[in-house]
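User: Fold this; tokens only.

Assistant: Input:
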Amino acid sequence: MKKLLSLSIAAALSGILFGQPAGAADNDGQALVKQGEYLAVAGDCAACHTAPGGKPFAGGLAINTPIGNIISTNITPSETAGIGRYSLTDFERAVRQGIRRDGARLYPAMPYTSYAVITDGDMKALYTYFMQGVAPVDVRPQTTALPFPFNLRFSMAVWDSLYARAAPFVADAGHSAEWNRGAYLVQGLAHCSTCHTPRNFLMAEQSGQALAGASLGTWYAPNITPDKQAGIGQWSAGDIASYLQTGRSPTGSQAGGPMLEAIDKSFSKLSAADIHAIVTYLQGVKPQSANAPPGRLAATRPLISDVGLMNGSASQGARLYAEHCSTCHQVSGQGSHGLPALYNNAAFRRPVADNAVMAILDGLTPASGQAMPAFRTVMNDQQVATLVNYLFKNDGDAGVRTTPERVNTLRNGGAPSPLLAIAKGGMIALLVVVIVLVIGGGILKSRRRQR
């Protein structure tokens, strides 16, 4: 991928409400490419459309969803494998409405419900960047093959008619330009609600619970509204900005999983002005009280006794901690040399223990700074559950616990969506109805003949 904007260009871009390039009257195509490049970073397009070790935007990444893996497409300007034949209208239709050039529907793993708010000017800049600033790759990724009936893409038309109704962003005159810029980014390109808003049984976002926190199948995206108990209402503007720019906050939060990837590839590359606009908006959204942790915080962390470890009187959790964690996080969990403290760490003040489990299973590998190793092959499900419960009891919210069964589910990619069972049940019911109608029709015809 091309080198990102210089700080001066990024600052100039972010000072305009909708990302219009400095000197908008200037039709310099290169400036439009640069603007589109910045917007593609803000939209985190590379995260999904670039496979590990693959070429930028060539697709091929398997995105795990509750209904199966969705393979990201090639969005380079290749005319044989990518979007090289797309007109601006075709591109806009795909990004805003989730409809490909050939008329086939995209799955909402592509966040077109959020991207629908992108303004016409930014849409043109994005199109120009992908057509002129991205190298074409003539390799077609593997085709997505979801189980029946989800492999019938036309069925998405019904879902879209119910839930894909967003329109290009319109500024709210009752708020400042900075708030509106933040709203535009959070609601649109950054698509924060895609992860942080709970979904209904049809996998659509629950609008009344915007940003109130949601499970992603494995990782848990926490409540990021300004509620003081359930959300980030006790975070200062500086705390939030630091977290978005570095993946760490003075509140004791460290990003992991999809959020760490979003910070490494997107948020950390945004201008300071855009980060502060996002913070301004987040601090002004409606507080949501859903998904608050139980609130049974540990009073103090007990020291692990060497004698207890030697004579076997220490708990299994303490022994697992001493064996796998204490070297980096220290005996009392205070951390050292840039490694985070565990006592009162935000990872142990969540309504569920999933993020702590996933961090232990898969580790944390930020683009910069010290990494945490993965223990997936080192500890079994029971050991991970025992260690996590020990950490919550002694370092965070003692009211949160996990089980070996839950660890196993997370280890294997999360629980399948109930939609699978619902869809299969619905198809079976439909088949039964068809059979009954066929048989009933045959009986009626037979009786008529007998008459």
